[in-house]
Amino acid sequence: MQFQRDYQMFAPSQARSLLAMIMALFLAACDGSSSVNDRTADSPTPNTPETPAIPQQPNAPLQPSTPAAPEGEPDFTLALASAEPGSALAITEGAESKIGVSTQFLNGFDRSVSLSVEGRAVDLEDLSLALSETTIVPGTSENQVRNLELTLRLAVGALPIMPHQRSVTVVGVSGATTKRLQLDIDVIPVPRPDVYLLIGQSNMSGSSGGGKDAGPGGLDEPHPRIRQLNVKGDDETPGAHTSRSLNVMPEVFVRAEDPLHKPLPAGASSKDGVSIGPGLSFAKAALGDTTQNIILVPAAWGDTGFCRELRPRGSWNAVVRNVGDLSNETLLYQRALLRTAVAIEESGGILRGIIMHQGEKDASDEFKGRDCVQYYAENIRLLVSELRTNITEDVRGPEWRDPEAAIPFVMGTMSRGADERNDYSQFSPAKSVVDGVHRNISGLLSYATFANFDDLVPPGYPCGAGDCIHFGASAAREMGRRYYMALRDAVDSQ
């Protein structure tokens, strides 16, 4: 909690102590006095909760305040204007806040004062500041007070934030005299849910082949703050990919439970199905970095890729390119757009990221006489760019719908598991090409990286359904955690 602090003038009662007191104030200003005007922006803010969204950075040295003039001498002060003692300064992410600042000219001080605002990089992140006046000229009265406004706006950034406190300093300079007013501001996260899109193949939708542990205290127990779009099952009916009624249940949002890509029927308290994917553990990892609900948007579909198919389930192409063996339809991309649009429009949430598990289908098509691997890197680049551009806008506005928007994207690596059923430890040439695209995704796209799952193999991590092309339940849980850590890194590393 920040309390109002007013500048304290030095008022000696005995002439012989004047020099000693001036020196004491000067030293206090240099090493961080508790007086608002004497504290520099380098002074640590007490009891400030740490937030992973805003990493600490080195403080820049700032010139300290000039000590107060002797009693009766011309001087000026800076203070909060019209604030109740003990009141807190606060700003909500995505909103604007105005703070009144007063400049008082004392004992005939007759020089103009130039005003500015300073702060550490950590405190200024996503924060814009504007003073209503930057030069204050004293009037003719003996002790005139001039009021102005400092307007702050904290933009909603790429990652959610936690409640914390920031400090900025209003600096007044007149000749050799410098005064500082430190403002400690409580930051309140934007009150909107965090939305994440899940796309790709069966390892994203969940093919663990069992292992679901969703009972009380279980590893896959649902969490009240993790919600999901209540999607219907995969539907190959013509028009189903772009029909809301064929994609989303009447009860739009439910508590997230595996399998995420299956609906919670009306009146049911839990889902059937014993397989899990990485989505729920991903969301659980994210809970510690947000005060808001999390909404997962399941949009993966097993055994899908970018090549032509006789089956009507669709491809992940976002653009019809008319090259090689690529499919000339965009059904799964359109389905992902639709589902994310419903989630954002119905919840008012903010798109915080996209995670994908893909590649097995694209690499295996070489055995069917189709060559799509050579286009794989461009396919992924186009898909992510089009999703970032065309997903329904959220509260951040149209500038966040651009191919280069800071919407993090994470691609997971394919399984290298081996057991008695099959051995995927060594990749074919085509699969190696796909794997290389995943590992170098940051070279294709901004705010993108990969999550490495090479070690999530037997015996420590049993394989999933069918054979080791699928990750098992214990691997899926660890995948989710790694997806989340990679997603944060995709933003922080830029």
Automatic annotation (TrEMBL):
The keyword Transit peptide does not apply. Keywords: Hydrolase, Signal. Residues 35-74, 201-225 are annotated as: Disordered. Residues 1-29 form the signal peptide. It holds the Pfam family SASA. Residues 35-66 have a biased composition (Polar residues). Residues 194-417 form the Sialate O-acetylesterase domain. This is Sialate O-acetylesterase domain-containing protein. It comes from Allohahella marinimesophila.
